[in-house]
Prior knowledge:
Blueprint: H1 12-20, H2 26-50, H3 55-62, H4 66-73, H5 81-92
Helix pairs in contact: 3-4, 3-5
Amino acid sequence: MKEGMNDNLTSFVSHLDSQYGKRGTASREKFEEEFETFKVGVMLQELRKEKGLTQEALAEKCGTTKTYISRIENNASDIRLSTLMRIVREGFGARLDLQVSM
Length: 102
């Protein structure tokens, strides 16, 4: 990098701290929760496309509606854990593993 180019760069964590507050604050926790929901939607959309399924085909396989799959993929709907597990199991023939991070 050229000299001086790094002067205006901040870390992603610093950016989050300035935009949403430090970890543990209500605004940061809300952001983190919404980001995790967003990641679930993206993950399901990527899996669906890898399997060559339309939203309608995935919905049919796991007993829900195309609209509901679309809402999950577009981060417009909270999803129950049992529903997520059913989509992964019946829709993709896979198993959902969870991890808790401290």
